[in-house]
Amino acid sequence: MQGCGNAASVHKLRNFPHSSVASAQKVKAANKVENVEEGSLLIVVLDLNPSQRAMSANPKGFNHTLEAIIAFANAHLMLRQNNKLAILACHAKSSEYIYSDRDSSIVPTGQNDAQYELFAHVERVVRVGLKRFISKIEPSTGDSLLAGSCSMALCYISRMQKEKPVGTTLNARILIITGSGDSASQYMNYMNVFFTAQREGVQIDVLSMEQDLGLLQQGCDITGGVYLKIPHQNGLLQYLLWVFLADPPVRKKLLLPPPVKVDYRAACFCHRQLIDIGYVCSVCLSVFCKFSPICTTCHALFKTPGPLPSKPKKKKLKWFYQYSYQLSFMGGRRIGRSRAVLWNWVVSRATGGQTVRLVPGKCDSRRIDGLLTVTPPHSAQQSHVRERQDFASSGNRLCSSQQSFRETARSCQNRRVTSVMQVMWCYVNFEVVLVVAGSVGLQVFDCDSLELRFSHPCRDVPDDREHFARGLAHTPGDYICVGNNSGIVRLFGTSEGGSLMFIDRKQFHGSPVADLTANKELLASCDDAGNIVLSSITPEELVQWADISSYGCACTSIKMWKGFLVAGYGSGHIRLFSINENRREVSLTVEVAAHAKWITALDIAPESGFILSVSEDSFAKVWHVVKGDNVVVTHRFSTQVKDCMLVGGRFLTLSGSIFAVSIYDSNLIQCFKM
Question: What residue ranges carry the coiled-coil annotation (predicted)?
C-alpha cells in the first residue's frame, strides 16, 4: 500500500507538469533579480559664487553648509555598498570636480578609531578640493555656470554607465545646491541639459537657498526631480536627509513637500529675458520678444502675421499741424521684406497731385529684387536748393508716369543687379553719381545715362556662401566707404584722372556691418552685434581710434551731427555720444527710451538738429537736440500709422519740418508735416 501511495503521488505530480515548471521559473527569476547588484550615483553640484546672497549675507555660514554637505554625502555612501559619489563646484568663471570616486590623486587616510575610513577620506578630499578651488576664484559679478556643471555631470554619468561591471545597475541623479538667482542668459544651455537628462533617465534635484529659480523648476519637472526652496540654512542637513537622501523609487513611499507651481516662461533669444508672450520662428523654433521679419538665428524671412500691437495714440500738441498723403512706389512693386526701407529717392507731391518731385535719398533695405532708380537732379547743390523751396512747388525734372519707373528698373535689372542693400546719391569729382551696395558688391552709375562707371565685388567669403555689401558713407573729399556682411569696411577714392579706385580695407567688425556715416575725415560704422567703431579717413588708409561696446542688441542706424554721434538700437533706445576728435574720446551723453520695439531708421535735419526715428511699433517720432551746459534731447512730435510696421524714414527738408516714412510689405510712402 505504501508503494502504491508513492506511485499515486508521483502520478498526481505528473498530471500538473506546467504548474510545477512555472513555479520553478518564478523562483529562479526571483533569485536572479536578487543577485543583481544595484547602486546609486549621486553628483552634487555646489554653487560657490561669492555674489550669491546666501554667502554674502552670512560669510561664516559657509562652514555650516560645508559640514552639512559632507554629512549628507557620507549618509549616501552608507546606504548601500555600491553607491557612488561625485561633487562639483562652480562659480562665474569655471567648474571643477572636488571629489569623485575616480580620483586617485589623494591617498585614503589611515585607520581612525573615531571615524570610518571612507568617511574620513571623503571629508579630507572635499576640504582640500574646496580650498584649492576657492583660492582660484576672482571677484566677478557674472552668473554661476550651473548649466556647464550639469553638462560635466552628465558626461561623468555616461562614462560611469559604460564602465560599470556586468550584472550591475547604476541609478544616477544630480543634486544642485545654489543660492544664486535665475540666469535667463543660460536658457538654451539649461534646456539642452534638461532634455538630455530626461532622455538618459537622470533626475535633477534642486535645493535653493532663499531664491525662486524658474528655470531650475522646469528642469526638475522635466526630469522628474524634486525642487525645494529652504527659508534658512540652519536646517540644511535636515532638509537634505529628509528630501534628497532617498533614491527616486523610494521617494514615492515618503511624505515629501508638495510640488511647486512651475514657471514655464521661455527666454527670448534677443535679450535673454523671460517673457510671457513672444514670437517663435517656425523654422528653427527660436523665441523672440518682438516680431522681426528676419529670424536672426536661421535668417528665415517672414511676413507680418497681422496688425501689430501698438501703444495708445497720444494727443498731439495743438500748435503742430499735420497732414499725410500716399504715393505709389515703383508702379505697385512692394518694399522688400526687411526691417529697413528702400530709399532710392524721397518723394514729395507737386501742385495738382499728378506729378512727383525726386530728391536724392538713401536705401537701407536688406533684400530688394531689382534695382529701383530714377533720374536725379543735375547736382546735389540743385537738389538742396529745391528742398528749400515751397513744399508744393514742382521741380524741373518730373517723372509723371509709372512707365518711366518700369523702364528705369528694367534697364538696371539687365545689369544683373539682383539684390540692393543700400543706395545713395554722391557728389564725386564735380558730378552726381548713384552708388549702389548689394549682393554683387559696390556699383557706381552715371547720373543721367545710368551707365556703370565703377564696380567692386567687396567679397571676402567663398562663392558658395551668402554675400552682400551694406552700409554706405560719402565724405566731401571724394571718398566712398562701404561695408559688407563679413564685418569689413572698404575705402574708395578718386585718382588723379578722376576715376574711382580702391584704397584700403579693414576688419573693424566681427558681425555684418549695419550702417556707415561720415563727417569730413571721420567715419563711424556699426554692426548687427551692436558695436560701433570710429576711424579716421586718410588718403592712404582707414585708421581706427575709438570704439563703443555693444549694449546687448543690434545697432541699426547711426548719424553724425556737429560733434555728436546718434545711434539707434534694436531695443528701441536712441543714444547720443559726444565725440572729442582731439583727445580721440567718445562718451555717452544722453540715452532715450524712444520706442517699444526695434528702431529701423534714423535721420538728422542738419539745420535744426531734429532727429527722426521710426520703429516697428508703428510710431515715427521727432526729437530735438538742445545744446547747452547739459545736452538734452526733447520730444517734439510723434505720429502713428496704425496696424503697420514702419521700416524707414527721412527728412525732406534741411530744417526737418517735413519727413516721409515707408511701411513694411507695402508700396506706399507717407509724408508728414509738423
Answer: none
